[in-house]
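Saturday, quiet lab. Running sequence design on the structure tokens for the scaffold JK sent over.
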């Protein structure tokens, strides 16, 4: 089976498992632009990248109607570029980043759509490697960044825990979504679920799932 046929088969298989209305983001990090082009030719439009250098390069090679999601850790010195090419940022969890994104977006005459990343780890230690704000800090965070003119908060994002039942974590993410909507009613999106746990995430209201290996293979 050639590469295009392999991708097409896997894409169809995953789409058959999605709940109605769920947006599939194919995570194309480390894969060549040719794979993204195959996906585009198959009718797919939503792509995810974790690194600015890859997202910036690939976005220039695809037609303008491709939708790009940045979902990696944010570095301040990369923000100008990220705001230039991304349609959505999934990993907002820092007030200073929010203010800078807003400023850069306004300079580019756009509103940057952002998900607030919530840390879903049950045990948050001082040295935790997981990004995201603490769930109990959501309202405080939104009060500070919610009025930034260059930002559009569209929902919450979370990464399920490793080697644990993801259901409690995604239940917490769904709860965070409800609380966010009390503050910003139109912020209804939930970005949750990857190749190993997206079915569970959908049970808890995920509107966007981020899948890479189940469609493009192992890296």
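Result came back. Writing it out in full:
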């Amino acid at each position: 089976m050639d590469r295009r046929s392999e991708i097409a088969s896997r894409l169809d298989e995953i789409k058959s498992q999605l709940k109605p209305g769920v947006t599939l983001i194919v995570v194309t990090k480390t894969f060549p632009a040719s794979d993204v082009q195959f996906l585009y030719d198959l009718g797919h439009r939503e792509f995810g990248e974790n690194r600015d250098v890859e997202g910036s390069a690939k976005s220039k090679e695809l037609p303008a109607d491709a939708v790009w999601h940045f979902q990696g850790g944010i570095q301040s010195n990369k923000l100008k570029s990220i705001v230039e090419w991304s349609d959505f940022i999934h990993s907002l969890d820092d007030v200073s980043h929010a203010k800078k994104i807003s400023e850069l977006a306004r300079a580019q005459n756009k509103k940057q759509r952002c998900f607030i990343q919530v840390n879903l780890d049950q045990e948050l230690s001082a040295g935790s490697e997981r990004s995201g704000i603490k769930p109990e800090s959501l309202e405080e965070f939104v009060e500070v960044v919610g009025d930034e003119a260059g930002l559009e908060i569209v929902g919450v994002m979370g990464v399920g825990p490793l080697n644990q039942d993801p259901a409690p974590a995604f239940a917490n993410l769904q709860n965070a979504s409800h609380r966010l909507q009390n503050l910003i009613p139109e912020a209804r999106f939930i970005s949750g679920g990857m190749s190993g746990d997206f079915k569970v995430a959908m049970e808890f209201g995920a509107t966007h799932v981020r899948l890479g290996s189940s469609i493009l293979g192992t890296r």
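Notes for JK: The radius of gyration is 17 Å. DSSP finds nine helices and eight strands in the chain. Ask whether to fix the surface positions before the next round.
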